[in-house]
Design brief:
The chain is α/β, with parallel strands linked by helices. The chain has one domain: 4-Layer Sandwich (Metallo-beta-lactamase, Chain A), CATH 3.60.15.10. It contains 8 helices and 14 strands. A 7-stranded mixed β-sheet has the order 6-5-4-3-2-1-14. The protein is globular. 42% of the residues are buried.
Length: 270
C-alpha cells in the first residue's frame, strides 16, 4: 500500500487526456434489428460502440481494451502511433479487435506491447493463434505480452498505472488508475482492499448497464451507491445498454456530479 501511495503522488503532476472511445455493451447501441427509441435515436450520445478508452500523456498513446470496434474508434481519433494496449479481461467485446493493431505494427516496425494478466494472455493465444504461431503467415502483427496483476503497479514508457481487481460476476478482471483518473468497466463487486486503490480519485468512469439487477454488472442504483462511497469530483457511467433510456433524459435524473459517458468524449486531468 505504501508503494501505491508513492506512485499516486508521483503521477499527480502528470497531465492526462482521456478520450472515451466507446461506451456501449457487448452488442453496442443501436442493436441490430432493434426499433426501441434509444436504438432509433438520432442523438449522437445514444450511439455507443463497445467500451474502450484512449489515454494520452507526454505524446504517448495507450488504449484500454480492443473490442470489435477498435479500427473504427482509432480511425476517428486520428492517432498515428500506438505505444501500448492494456486489457481488462478476455471477453469478446474487449479483445476481438486485437488484429487491428496491424497498421501500427507495420508503421512502427516493432512489436506492439500488450499488458494483461496471464489468464487473458492464454485466451489471446487461443483466439489469435496465427499471431503467436512459430511460422507466421506474412502480414500478421507481432505483439509483446507483458504480465500484470492486482499485486503490483506497473509503468508504460515511464507512465505509472495502478491495476485494480474487480469482480465481473465471478470473474476477476482489472480496472486501472492513471493519476487522478480511474477506469473500471464490467464490475459488479469490489473487495475493500481494492477499493482503497480508488479512493481519492477525482474522475471516475464506471459501468452501469441499466436500472435492473444483473448477474455480472452494476445497475444504476448500485453504481450510484459506489460512486457516493468513492466520492469523486465527477463520475461518468459507461458500458450502457439500450435499456438505460435516452441519454438526454437519463442525465436529468442523475446527481449533479454524475453523467452518462458518451463516445468521443474528452476528459483532461491535470
Amino acid at each position: 500500500m505504501i508503494l501505491i501511495v508513492i506512485l499516486i503522488f508521483k503521477i499527480l503532476t502528470i497531465q492526462f487526456k482521456i478520450t472515451i472511445l466507446g461506451t456501449g455493451t457487448s452488442q453496442g447501441v443501436p442493436i441490430i434489428g432493434c426499433d426501441c427509441q434509444v436504438c432509433q435515436s438520432e442523438d449522437p450520445k445514444d450511439k455507443r460502440l463497445r467500451v474502450s478508452i484512449l489515454v494520452q500523456v507526454d505524446g504517448k498513446n495507450i488504449v484500454v481494451d480492443a473490442g470489435p470496434d477498435f479500427r473504427q474508434q482509432l480511425l476517428r481519433t486520428g492517432i498515428r502511433h500506438l505505444d501500448a494496449v492494456i486489457l481488462t479481461h478476455e471477453h469478446n467485446d474487449h479483445i476481438i479487435g486485437v488484429d487491428d493493431v496491424r497498421p501500427f505494427y507495420f508503421r512502427q516496425k516493432q512489436d506492439i506491447p500488450f499488458y494483461a494478466t496471464e489468464r487473458v494472455q492464454e485466451n489471446l493465444k487461443k483466439r489469435f493463434g496465427y499471431i503467436f504461431a512459430k511460422d507466421k503467415y506474412p502480414g500478421v502483427p507481432s505483439l509483446s505480452l507483458n504480465t500484470i496483476s492486482k499485486e503490483a503497479p506497473f509503468e508504460i514508457n515511464g507512465i505509472p498505472i495502478i491495476p485494480i481487481e474487480v469482480m465481473h460476476g465471478k470473474l476477476p478482471i482489472l480496472g486501472f488508475r492513471f493519476g487522478d483518473f480511474t477506469y473500471i468497466t464490467d464490475v459488479l463487486t469490489i473487495e475493500p482492499e481494492e477499493l482503497k486503490k480508488i479512493m481519492g480519485t477525482k474522475i471516475l468512469v464506471i459501468n452501469a448497464l441499466h436500472y435492473f439487477e444483473h448477474y455480472s454488472h452494476l445497475n444504476v442504483p448500485q453504481a450510484l451507491e459506489l460512486i457516493e462511497k468513492i466520492n469523486p469530483e465527477k463520475a461518468y457511467i459507461t458500458h450502457v445498454s439500450h435499456h438505460m433510456g435516452l441519454s438526454a433524459e437519463v442525465n436529468k435524473t442523475l446527481p449533479s456530479n454524475v453523467a452518462l459517458a458518451y463516445d468521443t468524449q474528452e476528459i483532461l486531468i491535470n
